[in-house]
Write a structure and sequence with these properties.
With 84 residues, the protein is mainly α. It is built from four helices and no strands. It has a domain at 1-40.
Length: 84
């Protein structure tokens, strides 16, 4: 199923190693941690980063993962989530 998703196909075409790791971690507790390491700078090193279309694809994959595996989704922690 994952390999048929257009966003995954884009990541696989542009960053095959990243797509392979996403596929391996899909449906596991480590999925979100991996995406976080890809998209958030933790060290002061120079990185080129991802193009905007790849960032959007990664975000869409994260959302799809949260829908498919709600028990593995990280807790909501924004002000608006607690304002009810």
């Amino acid at each position: 199923m994952l390999h048929e998703i257009q966003d995954y196909a884009l990541v696989a075409r542009t960053h095959p190693a990243v797509a392979e790791r996403i596929s391996a971690l899909w449906g596991t507790d480590d999925f979100h941690h991996y995406l976080e390491t890809l998209t958030q700078e933790r060290k002061r090193t120079s990185r080129v980063g991802f193009s905007m279309d790849v960032l959007l694809a990664l975000s869409e994959l994260q959302s799809m993962h949260d829908v498919q595996y709600p028990d593995l989704a990280p807790p909501k922690d924004s002000f608006w989530d607690s304002a009810l």
